[in-house]
Design goal:
This protein is an alpha+beta fold and 86 residues long. It has one domain. The chain contains 1 helix and 6 strands; from the N terminus they run βββββαβ. The protein has one helix at 50-71; strands spanning 8-19, 26-27, 30-31, 34-38, 42-47, 77-83. Strands 1, 4, 5 and 6 form a 4-stranded antiparallel β-sheet that branches. The chain is elongated, with a radius of gyration of 17 Å.
Length: 86
Amino acid sequence: MAYEDAPYLVRTRTQYLENTDPQRRCYNGCHYKSQMVWTPWTTLDFCKTKTHAQNKLKFWKDLDDYAVSQRGKDSRREFKIVVKED
């Protein structure tokens, strides 16, 4: 079984601050009008079994919790396990 043929995928996405001001104004790094936007889901890991996928998901969530504790809540990511569709 090739690595890319694994049936389970661990996917992730992050949030970023998007400048939504029509005039794109920015003063000293602060946008006049902005909002938090989620990025599209991307594949983080390929897993052969559901148990392996759950273990990987726990690993990535623990790592994310540590990153949030060091860098703040803006570095938070979302994770999910999906079954790969052919």
